[in-house]
């Protein structure tokens, strides 16, 4: 697709619905052809990221619990910034969500906890 045809910016509800319908029919593969087949004027990469980080049915939406926080701190101490690996231990959470939560909320909290030990 040419750059002039590509849509950028926030996703609309209608686009989300079209992507969900396309994934239910075609499956989670070949995102470039899925984007074309669905009629979305988005790149395959954009469709994949939207699906993986926001639309998958098994994703947890909402606040991260204290138990999840403690697990993230523990696993980050063990594995460092391996967000995908950490996300595998937290079903329904994405690596991107965990990374962003770490950088905005937990980094300082983890430093305080370490100083207290």
TrEMBL record:
Keywords linked to the UniProt accession: DNA-binding, Nucleus, Repeat, Transcription, Transcription regulation
Signal peptide interval: none
Annotated GO CC locations: nucleus
Alphabetized GO MF terms: DNA-binding transcription factor activity; sequence-specific DNA binding
Domain HTH myb-type: 7-55, 56-110
GO BP terms: response to absence of light
Protein name: Uncharacterized protein
Species of origin: Coffea canephora (Robusta coffee)
Lineage summary: Eukaryota, Viridiplantae, Streptophyta, Embryophyta, Tracheophyta
């Amino acid at each position: 697709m040419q750059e002039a045809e590509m849509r950028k910016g926030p996703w609309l509800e209608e686009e989300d619905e079209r992507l969900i319908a396309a994934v239910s029919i075609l499956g989670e593969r070949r995102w470039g052809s899925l984007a074309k087949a669905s009629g979305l004027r988005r790149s395959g990469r954009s469709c994949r990221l939207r699906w993986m980080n926001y639309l998958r049915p098994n994703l947890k939406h909402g606040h991260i619990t204290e138990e999840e926080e403690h697990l993230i701190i523990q696993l980050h101490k063990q594995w460092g910034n391996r967000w995908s690996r950490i996300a595998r231990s937290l079903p329904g959470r994405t690596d991107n969500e965990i990374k962003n939560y770490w950088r905005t909320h937990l980094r300082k909290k983890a430093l305080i906890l370490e100083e207290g030990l």
